[in-house]
Amino acid sequence: MAKEKKGVRLEHISKIYQDPKTKKDFYAVRDTTLDIEPGSFVTLLGPSGCGKTTTLRMIAGFESPDEGEIYLGGEPINALTPNRRDTAMVFQSYALLPHYNIFDNVAYGLKLRKLDKAQIREKVTGILKLVGLEGMESRMTNQLSGGQQQRVALARALVLEPGVLLFDEPLSNLDAKLRVSMRTEIRRIQQEAGITAVYVTHDQSEAMAISDKIIIMEKGVVAQMGTPQEIYYHPDSEFVADFIGEANFLRGTLVSRDGTDGVVEIGGSRVAVCDIRQQKAGDNCTLVLRPEAAVIADKGQLPCRVVLSCFMGSYQNYHVMVGDTLVKITDFNPKNKKIYSVGDEAFVAFETESVHVL
Amino acid sequence: MARTQSADLDRKKFFADPVMVTTIAVLIAFLSLFILYPLAILLVDSFVTDNGLTLDVFRRIMGMSNFRRAISNTLKVGFLVGIASALIGLLFAYVEVYVRLRTRFMEGLFRVVSMLPVVSPPFVLSLSMIMLFGKAGIVTRYLLHIYDNSVYGFWGIAIVQTLTFFPVCYMMMKGLLKNIDPSLEEAARDMGASRWKVFTSVTLPLVLPGLGNAFLVTFIESIADFANPMIIGGSYDTLATTIYLQITGAYDKEGASAMAVVLLCITLFMFILQKYWLEAKSTATLTGKASRERMLITDRSVTLPLTILCSLLAVFVIVMYICVPFGALFRTWGYDFHLTTKWFQQVFKRYKGLKAFKDSFVLSLIASPITALLSMIISYLVVKRKFRARGFIEAVSMLAMAVPGTVLGIGYIRGFSSGVFRTGFLQGLYGTGAILIIVFVVRSLPTGTRSGISALRQIDKSIEESAYDMGADSFRVFMTVTLPLIKDSFLSGLVTAFVRSITAISAIILLVTPQYLLITVQINEFAEKGAYGIACAFATILIAITYGSVLLMNLVIRYFGTSRKFEEE
User: What is the Cα–Cα distance from B396 to B379, expressed in whole angstroms?
Assistant: First the structure.
């Protein structure tokens, strides 16, 4: 559908803001270089204040970068105003024009592009069909539910066939259930339209469900970029591991290394690991263990004492102490398994491939 | 860290929008020429003499005993009027917010009282004060048989101004009281405080900064007021009237300029105090929304005296206003109460009434759309755009609020009678209808801008951004999004500007030439001569026009204002 899928490239982009209280300058985004491939769905993920929205707004043109250049489809766009950029944004608050009905909202950008009436009608009707709002053209925006407003906002951006579609936390105002169905919907529509999309969110499950690639940002800097699987299974840092999904961190020392395999000692126990990157024997290291990747058993790698045991329906939730470290474990489908109680001594057991070494 | 690149890019983006650049340039030129320049010329006039930069002029005017008296008179009146208006305003607001009003009649009274200052021309109350309590006043002469009562002077001005300005305080205090969370007072009651104790220890401390704010706003209004002291002041001169007489009577231009600078300094000081200190403070303590509805006071020992007091005051104010049309219908006020239409006939036959109404009406009608549009543009720029001159535009349009009409009038005389900086440039403007229209615009601009700014602050910034993002330039965003969204504010700004213009007098009286007859100037003239019948006839028609246009506005807003629909969201 899109005229032309465009890639977005950020080259050494920085944005400096002034703290309104201390009057000191700080980097909201610092020396960020990104390559977003044409037609891909890329999510900027991070806690609030990490610079993700600022990055998005720089691509849209509402903010100007202090360093670096932004390219859209190979063209530098730094000096272009938002209305001259081939981008379209879906706002967090939807930002529908309240004095127009659905049709006029969607047709707004087309009218500015001086399309003739028949063409506008055809395009608007087509796009409303795509987002599932057929026949609602004459409704006013305040007669719509949150999900419907969201669809109008999406239709309004899509109808312009922009080189890149920008989403600024579009689902944060919806209730949890609607959020899940809308994100599937957004993904479907993006795939059908074959359009490049940059999506900002602080919800990690949303990011994983929807994206081809996730960019995790921390304090204005890209912490990691990769597919959801890469990020989940092979986080580059504790920040990334902790931010996406839940993680336990076990501190230890690498005692021996053979290729990428090795042995780590944690409080007297030895644990076999694989996929070691830069550490040498004798280095300190941290093991990342996902709660669902481990179980409690009578035999295992690490001895532990149960401090919390809580039935959650689909899983048994354990907190155990391994030495001084609290480890969370979720044991799924606990019906016919042995349930450990608070105070029980047991072992944490997991497969070698399930731990990731930092 | 250098923010040069973004500054550079922002500038590029800014200049890529020629309509906006032009608008801002025109705006800056307008504000500089018609607000800053006239004030600057006053400073030049009063400081620069043949001997260079001196304080000679100030020394001279401070030597005049009547000027010194005018300063103390003005401050005395302002002080009393400020306190009285703030307290009466608080009383009315308290009764409306806290006390269960038993009848529709009471609600109606309150609405009328809050509406009156909007539609009434200045000095209407002065007229009725004289007609009710003056030498030939109905109350004094016929009811009390006092034949030598003088309403002229300090008490006359103070009473009339208080009655004119307290409704403004009432509206301000009402907004604050409504924001108090009732549970605060309930907690105090629960801990054993009496109602009076709750009022003095909870309610009053919470609204005290707001009360101070109301006091200062009224104080400024009072010392800037020209018309009431003119009519009812008698020999009790205030700064505004002294300045007027200094230029129209004594032809002392430098002296009048210096006096205007003194008056400006006082209002400016008060304004800054109000704006930056009390205004912020008055709302800071009351940001919380009321958690639930307030239990209204039904205790008769409280409600009865309060309602009676308010009703009496309200009825008194309304009687004062009603007095004016009657004044126009009696043959000789105070002596011969036969109904007659002779005053109205005289207005139209002898005193070119039709021309006066036409001139006032047409000039105001031209000024009001300009004012409304200009104030919406200023508010849009101030609230929604980022550019370097934004602070300047905001400051100057707010500054206009602190400039008394008399000061502006003198500034225009000195600034434009022989052209800009006495070069002859734009000299043609002086004495024309155009300069009157400009004065109307400048005088109403701050109110319009303030209402526009508060309307725009309610609108989510991303709505305009979305339009911008979809390809609209600033001009289109303003026309297709901003303006429709603040339609109500625009429409009411239109009427407010019209009403303010057609009832304006303080600056206009200094600038009007015989070519134009303005109603307010006529009323002032006849009232001063003691021709109250004619003055009342003029005033009656003026009130009818303003009231009519306010009604029309309400109708228009009801049928065309769409904003209410999306406020409900």
Answer: 12
Residue B499 near residue B399, CB atoms below 8 Å: no
Residue A254 and residue A262: Cα distance in Å, rounded? 7
> Which of B476, B453, B456 lies closest to B466 in space, CA to CA?
B476
Judging contacts by C-beta atoms under 8 Å, the chain A residues touching residue B17 are 81
Query: Domain containing B364: what range?
Result: 1-34+341-562
In angstroms, rounded to a whole number, what is the distance separating the alpha carbons of residues B529 and B538?
14
In tens digits, what is the pLDDT along chain A, a chain of 358 residues?
Answer: 446 788 999 999 999 998 888 888 899 999 999 999 999 999 999 998 899 999 999 999 999 999 999 999 889 999 898 998 999 999 998 899 988 999 999 999 999 998 999 999 999 999 999 888 988 999 998 888 888 999 999 999 999 989 999 999 999 888 888 889 889 989 998 998 889 999 999 999 999 999 999 999 999 999 999 999 999 999 999 999 999 889 999 999 999 888 888 899 998 888 998 888 888 888 899 999 999 999 999 988 899 999 999 999 999 999 999 988 999 999 999 888 889 999 999 999 999 888 998 8
B46 in a domain, yes or no? no
Side chain identity at residue B180, one-letter code:
I
The rounded distance, in Å, linking the Cα atoms of B259 and B245 is: 11
Is the CB of B463 inside 8 Å of chain A's CB atoms?
A: yes
CATH number, domain containing residue B262:
1.10.3720.10
pLDDT of residue B562: 53
Residue type, B109: L
Structure tokens at B71: 């300063």
Q: Strands A315-322 and A302-311, how do they pair?
A: antiparallel
The phi and psi torsions of B476 (rounded to 5 degrees) equal -65, -40
Name which of B6, B17, B471 is nearest A66 (Cβ-Cβ).
B6
Residues B294 and B353 in one domain: no
Contacts of A77 in chain B (CB under 8 A): none
B469 with A89: Cβ contact below 8 A: yes
Write down the ipTM of this complex: 0.82
Residue of B nearest to A27 (CA): B1
With CA atoms as reference, the chain B residue closest to A161 would be B470
Does the beta-carbon distance from A16 to B562 stay under 8 Å?
A: no
A308 DSSP β-pair partners: A319
Helix, coil or strand: residue A175: coil
Distance from CA of B5 to the nearest CA of A (A): 5
CB contact under 8 A, A60 and B462: no
Residues B409 and B464 in one domain: yes
**Interface contact A15-B6, CB threshold 8 A:** yes
Domain count across chain B: 2
Shortest CA distance from A61: residue in chain B: B469
Q: Nearest by CB to A113, which of B7, B471, B484?
A: B471
The encoded tokens of residue B43 equal 């400073």
Q: Could you give the dihedral angle defined by the CA atoms of residues B21, B23, B25 and B29, in that order, rounded to the nearest 10 degrees? A: 180
Considering the domain boundaries, does residue B333 fall inside one? Answer: no
Give the A:B interface size as CB pairs under 8 Å: 112
pLDDT digits (tens, 9 = 90+) for B277-315: 777 776 655 555 556 677 788 777 888 888 888 888 888
d(CA B367, CA B437): 5
For chain A, which domains are there? 8-241 (3.40.50.300), 246-357 (2.40.50.140)
Q: Which of A16, A78, A112 sits opposite B9 (nearest CB)?
A: A78
Strands ordered across the beta sheet of A315-322: A294-297, A345-350, A302-311, A315-322, A325-332
Are B462 and A65 an interchain contact pair (Cβ–Cβ within 8 Å)? Answer: no
Amino acid at A342: V
All residue ranges of chain B with pLDDT < 70 are 1, 102, 118, 282-292, 334-337, 561-569
Q: Please tell me the distance from the alpha carbon of residue B564 to that of residue A82, in angstroms, as a whole number.
A: 30
Of B469, B476, B485, the CB nearest to A82: B469
